[in-house]
Amino acid sequence: MSSSELNPLSREERGHSSDGYSFLSELLDDWGRPRLDMARNFFSHLKQKDVPYLIEGFQNWRDFAEYMLLMGENRVNGKKMFLAVKCSKRGNDVFSRRLDKRLGFLGRMEGIDLFHADDFKTNRVVRSNLLWVTLTYNPALHSLKAAWETYMKDWNLWITNLRNRYGKIDVLKFSEAFPKEFKKDGSRAKAFAYPHIHAVLLFKEAHFRVFPHMEEGRDGALGLVYRIGERDELKAQGKWHSFVDIKALSSGRALGGYLRKHTKNTHYGDSQGALVTQALLWLHKKQTFSMSSGFRKSFLDLITGLQGSKENWAQKTFDGRVLDDWIWTAHGVRSAFELDVDPGTWVQSLDEEKFHRLVGNRNGN
Q1: Where are the domains of the chain?
Q2: What is the rounded CA–CA span in Å between residue 166 and residue 151?
Q3: CA distance linking residue 47 with residue 84, whole number of Å
Q4: How many helices (DSSP H) and strands (DSSP E) are in the chain?
Q5: Do the Cβ atoms of 137 and 191 come closer than 8 Å?
Q6: What is the pLDDT of residues 93-144, one digit of tens each?
Q7: What contacts 240, CB < 8 A, 6 or more positions away?
Q8: CA distance 186 to 217
Q9: Mind listing the pLDDT tens digit for each residue in 133-168?
C-alpha cells in the first residue's frame, strides 16, 4: 500500500482486514518489527481522519518490547557480563520512569509559595517572574501536516521576540496535540491533532504585576487564577499567530497541578489525550519536552532563595551510581520474542552462548 492510498473514506476502502493486519503490516520492516521510518512513509500525507490509524500504529510500535544487548567487561578482574536491557520507547514503562526522573527536581517546589492570596492588599504590588504560558495553533492557518512542520519555527521566533525585550528567559517547554476529535454536539473539532505548546517561563531580568481573578474552568466551576497586568504588552511583543494564555504561578502546588494536567497525563498512558499526543510527537520526531540550559539551575536558585537556604539541591546523576570498573559495549537490539522474555522484564541476564547467538542471528554471522 502506498502513501497515496492513505486517505479514503472508510476502513474497508483502505484495504484493511477485519483485524487490521494488512494495515499494521505496512509499518513493519523486513524482520517484522514496527518501525518509525515505515510509519513516516505510510502517513506522509497525514490528515485528521487518519489519526486513529496512526494511534493504532503507534501503540503497536510502543508495545513491541525490544532490548539492547550489552556486554560488560570488568577491567579489574576480567569477568564478563551479558545483559539485555529494555529500550525506552515513548509512552512505555521505561520511558515513563525516565521522564519522572528527569522532571523530579520540580517536585522540590512542593510546599514553596511565591505569593499568597492574602498578599493582595491595598497599595501593595505583587510581582512574579515565573509564568505558565499556553500557545495554541489556529487550524485555519495551515494543514495538519504543515502545522507540525512549522510550529517549532514559530516558537523560536516567539521566544526570541520576548528575549529581545525582557532579557534572559529560561524555559521548560512541552509540546502536545489537541486531543478532542469531536465536540459535544458531535461535530468534528477543527483543532483535533494540531500542535500546541505549554511552557514554564522563568524571567531573569523582568517581573510582572500579578492580580487575582475568578474564572470559570472547562468543568464550569469557578476558580482563582493569577494573571499579569502586562499581558497585552507581552502578547504584542511575542507576535504569536494564534490564541495565547498567560498565568502567573503562585506556588509549587500550582506548578505541579499544571504539569500533571498538561504533561504527565498526556505523555504516557492510554487515555485519548495521551495517545493523540504521543502518536503525533512520535511521527514527527518531536521531543517530549525541552529545557533551556540554565532552567534547572535558575529554578533551584529560585527555590533556595525562597527557603533562605544555601543547600545544594543539584542532582548529580539521574540513574544512580556509575560502575567505573565495568566497560560496556552495545551489540544490537532484539525483541522480547527473540529473547523469550516477558515484555514486562526490564533487565535480563544472559549466558555467553545465548548472547553471541542473538548477536549473530540477525545478520547471519
Answers
A1: 3-68+327-361, 105-307
A2: 22
A3: 38
A4: 12, 12
A5: yes
A6: 999 888 888 888 877 777 788 888 888 887 789 999 999 999 999 999 999 9
A7: 135, 154, 158
A8: 21
A9: 999 999 999 999 999 999 999 999 999 999 999 999
